[in-house]
Amino acid sequence: MLPTAAIVIMGGGPAGLTAALELTGKTAHNVVLIEQETQVGGISRTVNYKGNRMDIGGHRFFSRSDTVMEWWQNILPVVSLDLAEKRDDVMLVRNRLSRISYLRQFFDYPIALKWETLKNLGFVRVLSMGAAYSHAALFPRKPEKSLEDFFINRFGKTLYETFFRDYTEKVWGVPCNQIASAWGAQRVKNLSIIRVLRHAIMSLFTKSTDIKQKSTDTSLIEQFLYPKFGPGQLWENVAGKIMAHGGTVLLHHRVTGMEMENGKVTSVHVEDTATGERKSFPCSAAISSLPLRELIPMLDAVPEEVHAVCKGLVYRDFITVGLLVNKLRILNRQKDAASGSRIQDNWIYIQEPDVRLGRIQIFNNWSPYLVKDADKVWLGLEYFATEGDSLWALGDGEVIDMAVRELVLLGFIRAEDAVDATVLRVKKAYPAYFGTYPQIGKVQEYLDSIPNLYPVGRNGMHRYNNMDHSMLSSILAVSCILDPSLNKAEIWNINESGEYHESK
Ligand SMILES: Cc1cc2nc3c(=O)[nH]c(=O)nc-3n(C[C@H](O)[C@H](O)[C@H](O)COP(=O)(O)OP(=O)(O)OC[C@H]3O[C@@H](n4cnc5c(N)ncnc54)[C@H](O)[C@@H]3O)c2cc1C
């Protein structure tokens, strides 16, 4: 029997789960979390396909926030690979290696000052990069309006066209000059050619073994934490703890609407997607990580202009193919060519314009425990799409055929080495910083006027959040619920000013 007024949390991704765990034991209200899928974790879940585990996107557990780093390690402690053999509920420390495939060559990410890099790029292109960078440094584009301006001001036109443009346009499906520069500020923060070069030079002399990597730009971090069985393992553990502390986690239940009285949310309506049964949960407060485009139509007295902004918010969807192969054709050209061992990259950006493939994950290198048979290579082939476009409309078999064909074309595998495959489609994987995004302030203002509704998380705030910022928004929302003197509008400032709470 549920008490009359619960605190209802909508969405069981990192934001919702963090809120629920932070609340349990600290409030007299029952804590009820509603998740539409049959498992928790949201985009950060792990999908198990015949014993091979897929991480949707490849999730590095890394944060500038000590609070978040400690929170994660309280759920799953960090152990060495030897100990991980004996214990399951643990995190590993992994080295990051990611490279860019371009001109059928590998380039280090971040670009390293090496003879090999210069040789692969060619003398003329390198000269052009230097000249274009000097031009950008002397005559920066002002005002810096678009993502194209952002990249060119920091890297020069030639480097931008070589290493940023095609991949970014694959991700977003629109030209970089139509994307607000805010996305660059959010995603690559302070990264610039000077910082990349400084990092390359410093790395020659110092090797940090501290997982906090406080002095390193987030895009350049070299180590990260990773749950033994993928990110979903941590979030499933969190769900277990919420229930152990008396909270309720309802899977396959979809939030369908809300009741409001005197400007406050009074109950949340849900539907059991397995049985079709409908229920209502009276609530004293509601925390929402639902996409804003879904949440706003559920509320009362929404001004027309707020509806209009919400309808115009754009999302990018994501298709990932889990592909099991006997072996890769390419060998590690840097170190292990002679030994013939598998390449060590966690992921490879595909900057080649003749394929639709955006990125390849090599799950074996995230954690060997993601892969059932250690002799096989378990890959994630990532395609960026928009619900309803020609890519999204392809059947699963067609997507798999395309993925195998493109990998063969790029020289990564032989077709006969592909042994099994599955397709995952993730809707609203990326909240876009174009469409009506520039007017999002109107939505924020309206939501701030509802005193007991707390929008948190990635789509919940339409913010390009990693797990840590989604979690920090929930931690602050819980503080506001427990201490009503706090200003809940402050939640929007998380991840707005870069390293919220964390600047040292
Ligand atoms: C390709 C890719 C790579 C990434 N890599 C990293 C990384 O390396 N490190 C990192 O920290 N982060 C990474 N992220 C970001 C990370 O996935 C998100 O920040 C995180 O999952 C956001 O958590 P959330 O709870 O805010 O949202 P979500 O994970 O989207 O969870 C929202 C939940 O709400 C549920 N929901 C939606 N509507 C309803 C409804 N009506 N009723 C009930 N439930 C509903 C959804 O099913 C979902 O479970 C990556 C993301 C992508 C797409």
Associated small molecules: flavin-adenine dinucleotide
Radius of gyration: 23 Å
Globular, elongated, flat, extended or rod-shaped: what is the shape?
globular
Fraction of residues in β-strands: 15-25%
* Mean pLDDT across every amino acid position: 89
Measured distance between first and last alpha carbons: 47 Å
Total helical segments: 18
CATH topology of the largest domain: FAD/NAD(P)-binding domain
Which second-level CATH architecture of the largest domain applies?
3-Layer(bba) Sandwich
Outline the low-pLDDT stretches: 334-339, 498-504
Per CATH, the superfamily of the largest domain is: FAD/NAD(P)-binding domain
Can you tell me the CATH class of the largest domain? Answer: Alpha Beta
Percentage of residues assigned to helices = 25-40%
Domain count: the total is 3
Can you count the beta strands?
Answer: 18
- What about the largest sheet? 7 strands, mixed
Structural class: alpha/beta
